[in-house]
Specification:
565 residues, alpha+beta, 18 helices
Amino acid sequence: MSFDREWMYTMRLTSNGLFNPAFVSCVAYFLDFVFDNPNNIHKRTKDGVENLVIKCPCVDCKNRRYKTRAEVEFHLYHKGFVDDYKVWYLHGESLHTQDVGQCSNPLPSSVARQDVDDDHGQYNGYEEMVMETMHQSHHPYYQQEPQDPNQTAKKFYTMLSQANEPLWIGSENASTLSIATRLLNWKSDCNISDSAFDKLLVIIKDILPDGEKLSRNFYETKKILKPLELPSERIHVCKNHCMLFNGEYSHLERCRVCNENRYKERGNKIPKLVMTYMPIGPRLQRLFYSKKIAKHLTWHADHVRQPEKMSHPSEGQAWNHFDSVFPDFAQETRNVRIGLCTDGFTPNQSSATPYSCWPVFITVYNLPPWLALKEQYVQLPLIIPGPKDPTHNLDVFLQPLINELKMLFADGIETYDAYRRNNFQMRVVLLWTVSDFPAYGMLSGWSTRGKLACPYCSDKSGSFRLSFGRKQCWFDCHRQHLPSKHCFLKDGINFRKGVTVPSVRPIPYPTGEEIWQTIQHFPTVYQGIPYVKGCKKPTGFGETHNWVKKSIFWELSIYNVNVFF
């Protein structure tokens, strides 16, 4: 048996940057050697519990910090040994030791020892996920028995491993997956054409050594990443935003509401309007596949709350009220709470050719505040195509998302948690929407125009019409919210001339149940009833309420309407 300790620096990772399982037996040999010598062990008491600790020889601790056996084991797996420590003089050996032993446990013959660079930290996100999955079972902080990933997660990890093969024999820092992602990212950032991309690949292939596995053209490069794609669905839409041609109506060639033709011309089967829907369930699952992100997805329950300060929506009344109504949902802290945001924009930045496009964003509020609104954690389930503003027919486009949200709340989907190493049934709930006032009217069904535009004050807002312009005005409507003895209440000079507010009474805001009693018989715009300007409004519109429709979001409140409104 050889008497060198090169395994400390050459065996931890394979040539393509993945964790080498053979390294486990060598670390076990080192720890057994250290704990067999009582002089190396110290006692540390923390929170009334006594632990045996030794100096940790990892790259970060550098034999300066004391850790438990499990912590040292994890550090060595994750970071490797400190440089030039082949003689374990801080763990019981003499500096003059000549017979430096190697791991005594035999290594599998199929595992070859590879030389790797000392810098092991340069991985892209996908490579790091593969490495974490292969050695995360040794993390000392897991309390439950580890579980194997479910079939969906296992297929994903296997796919990453297969795509992470070296670009050529002997390549240590380049893999087919990393090079494909970097090249496609460069192509997108620099707006490179397909033909220029293909010509560049020919030049690079001539430079690389024999046996290289670089793709030959743009098509093959995209094909490498094809297995990593998330599902999406193209749905045909009526040109007038009346209905979606999917589900039981996927066979129709004319709109069942306005009788508009589905296709541009007969026989060519080219739809007039198409919407792309990207399901959020698989995308939320991917967040749990990364150990680092999965750890943050319970921050809302793990962080320390400061008294009289609100640092996260989980400390607000809406969040806590939902937890009290659905304790079974709140019990699993990994269940996802999301918010929805939408607004229109003109993608071409041109007023000459107006085109209104409406993206719908999903924000994950489980994450800490500094991550929740980062670009990589915001989902884009659908983009409502233009060129016309969808107005209150926005509900037609939201049907696939609402149907998926109902499924995710009621049943959930099995998800593998890479941080806790187990599978759980992930459920999702939409807690609130975030939008400007016009978009609020489209989402809620409450018209934000006229004298009842305010959804809280309604007919008690005190709005009035201008004498000459005949426009509705809300000037001087705020004094009714001041304290009862405020000096502004009796001021008839600096506000509306001669108008005072004699008494202040709190406005009773309607509850969800009261709103439901009002609108439960109102029409919807996604069940064959279109909404167009000038259409007949529900009874009492503009007098006792400003509801123009029953919003599709009421389908999410079937369990308890007071939770969502």
